[in-house]
Amino acid sequence: MNKKKVLITGASIAGNTVAFWLSRQNFDVTVVERAESFRTGGQNVDIRGAGRIVLQRMGLEKKAIELTTGELGTDWVDEKDNVIARFAVDDIGDGPTAELEIMRGDISEIIFEESRKYAKYRFGEHIIAVSQHADGSSVTFNNHQSEYYDIIVVAEGVGSSTRNLLFTNEYRMRYMDLTIAYFAIPGKESDGKFSRQYNTVGGRGATLKPGSDGKLRVYMGIHKVSESEQKWSVEKQKEFLKEKFAKDGWEFPRILTELDGIDDFYFDVMRQVKMDKWSKKNLVLAGDAAWCATPLSGIGTTLAIVGGYVLAGEIAKNDDPEKAFQAYEQIMRPFVDEGQGLPKIVPRLLWPHSRMGLLFLRFVMRIAGTKPVRKVFSKLYLRNSEKIELPLYKLEI
Length: 397
What we know:
CATH superfamily of the domain at 4-71 and 100-172 and 272-339: FAD/NAD(P)-binding domain
Strand order of the largest sheet: 5-4-13-14-15-12-16
Helix content: 25-40%
Radius of gyration: 21 Å
Mean pLDDT: 94
CATH topology of the domain at 4-71 and 100-172 and 272-339: FAD/NAD(P)-binding domain
Structural class: alpha/beta
CATH architecture of the domain at 4-71 and 100-172 and 272-339: 3-Layer(bba) Sandwich
CATH class of the domain at 4-71 and 100-172 and 272-339: Alpha Beta
Number of helices: 14
Strand content: 25-35%
Distance between the termini: 21 Å
């Protein structure tokens, strides 16, 4: 019996996870990635709850733990860097900082290095056309070569061009009213091992997180209605940040001084992807392309790993792709709904616009940081990373 041919577009965490599992079963797996080479780097990510269980089943949890960033917890601070509230991992476990805190590029590479032993990877390629048939699809790539596949998995980012091509007008965006820039600047010993969260008036603020490479990761943004800033040029985006934060103290002068020299700048408008259905015939979506929950959820990477595992497991146990996709959606929907369930009032309160709002936030954080409250606060602050009945598939590794 011929192996079923599976095409995965996007060498993402979700895409690599699907490739990891399916390529070890009776499937011929090819992963195409628009970038010219595998992308490392990126921001810090959390792996929690069900995500860690899947990593254990993949035999990769130990490797991931060895590459954690060393972040000890999260501090809410004022303009003089005085700690308002501390949430230490040793004290509360998974909280604003997860026990398994790792660079996005590191966890993606760990899975990639294992999946490439069995799956084929082709970089610098992307889909430009798909013609669906009764039992598969003809795919045309940007190099104008065409191939036939039994199943196509779209595992790209929130702005997925392949989703836009194949599921046109079948998705909508829920904007979270946060415009965020991510990048790294040289670290200092005084930065310490705790993440620092600082907010000021006007909806402005930043989070600074220690990295395993000695650099300091900056998450800098403004609570505001989207003006499609993610479509601006990098130069315009940087000028926007310089203008908005020019008069702010704390670490912003240091950050703005480094801004022009950085080469890992990423700027986006936080938005969730909402879809009534993640599949049609032999096409299926996974990861942020299907359900982006935004970093506000705290379980975006966990959703990607768990979603990749469930999708691969259902494809492996069902000869009919449509039945597999239906089961995959039924299992994952409640978990995705949990990830996307953050009320929009939460970022509004955490990124205050007025002096009164800022004073109220700091008052609340002082209470939240007290010993009797901080563990409860952490559970309320984050989405539930265990809200899924995780199947145990008969998958070989």
